[in-house]
Amino acid sequence: MIRLEKVSKRLGAALVLKAVDLHIEERETFVIVGSSGAGKSVTLKHMVGLLTPDSGRVLVGDRVISEASGRALEQLRGQFGVLFQSGALLEWLTVGENVALPLREKTKLPEDAITARVQEKLSMVGLEHDHHKMPSELSGGMRKRVGLARAIVTNPRIILYDEPTSGLDPVTSRLIDELINRLRRELEVTSVVVTHDLMSALSIGTRIAMLHQGRIVEIADPQAFVRSAEPEVQRFLEAQYITRRGSWERTEP
Ligand SMILES: Nc1ncnc2c1ncn2[C@@H]1O[C@H](COP(=O)(O)OP(=O)(O)O)[C@@H](O)[C@H]1O
Ligand SMILES: [Mg+2]
Fold first, then answer.
1. How far apart are CA 228 and CA 218, in angstroms?
2. CA separation for the pair 50, 41 (Å, rounded)
3. Of the bound ligands, which one is closest to the alpha carbon of residue 33?
4. Which CATH code fits 27-50+69-238?
5. Which residue ranges make up each domain of the chain?
6. Nearest CA, atom 26, ligand 1
7. 206 with 30: CB under 8 angstroms?
8. Which ligand has the minimum distance to the alpha carbon of residue 16?
9. Which H or E run contains 7?
10. If 0-12 CB within 10 Å is exposed, 13-18 middle and 19+ buried, where does residue 67 land?
């Protein structure tokens, strides 16, 4: 479905991605973990054609998005819904208007169809009564859900999530995880989730890849991931109090 082949990318002075190889299957929820600055967001931007590699290539289906431009690129991008890290809501528009934006920009749907579609997607994220609210009236979790409704409003085949639970409390984070799982089941989409939330990765991922300093150091299903012998994976797990047996470990005070 999505394939990165030996993708390398320099940004400024830094070599941010170093020959990254990834193959994401249709209907997976593929999770990419790694610490801040590892190159996770840069990897996502390559998938949707917002960045192009210095070497290597990126395929969506059988099309090379990293070499596409103009109409072809627009058409490939149209298959994606993206939940950006910041949520990126326009503060001067209502919730409903924010969700409607991609439809207004990319389609010629009549106004009544737009209203119906916006309401359908707001219902999916549990915000059917909030379309008239302003972003400033929303909690962090609600903002993420509005961003999610906007990401799915064009019925994309692929959803990219950049840090969907960052800045949220644990209970709200698990609600977002459940929502991601539900969208996968109900919309049969392929998802790629970038996160440093290990609990989230383990509960939603079909496979988990770890990116460390621009290199993929592990790709495994959740059971195998927590047992990985890779030192960087172990460091990442230990930092979140998970032992190699997958159980919780308390540091002696
Ligand atoms: N447009 C850019 N110009 C220069 N450096 C960038 C740019 N975007 C990202 N970087 C650098 O690339 C590295 C990886 O960034 P990013 O993918 O955003 O990390 P993260 O894993 O936290 O999402 C960081 O060191 C960041 O500073
Ligand atoms: Mg990032």
1. 8
2. 11
3. 1
4. 3.40.50.300
5. 27-50+69-238
6. 37
7. yes
8. 1
9. strand 2-11
10. middle
Residue 162 CA, ligand 1 centroid: distance in Å: 13
Place of tokens 């997958």: 246
Cα of 37 to ligand 2 centre, how many Å?
7
Cα 76 to averaged position of ligand 2 atoms, centre (Å): 23
Residue-level pLDDT, tens digit, the chain, 253 residues:
999 999 999 999 999 999 999 999 999 999 999 988 999 999 999 999 999 999 999 999 999 999 999 999 999 999 999 998 766 899 999 999 999 999 998 889 999 999 999 999 999 889 999 999 999 999 888 998 999 999 999 999 999 999 998 888 888 889 889 989 988 888 889 999 999 888 899 999 999 999 999 999 999 999 999 999 999 999 888 887 766 655 666 666 6
Residue of the nearest CA to atom 17 in ligand 1? 39
Buried-state track 186-201, b at ≥16 Cβ within 10 A, e below 16: ebebbbbbbbbbbebb
The pocket around ligand 1, CB under 6 angstroms, is made up of 11-12, 14, 16, 34, 36-42
Counting from 1 in the atom list of ligand 1, the atom nearest the Cα of 34 is 21
Rounded CA gap, 139 and 141, in Å? Answer: 5
User: Of 4, 15, 16, which is best to mutate to test ligand 1, by the most ligand atoms within 8 angstroms of its C-beta?
Assistant: 16
> How much is the pTM?
0.91
d(CA 96, CA 122) in angstroms, rounded, equals: 8
Q: Ligand 2 centroid vs 195 CA: distance in angstroms?
A: 8
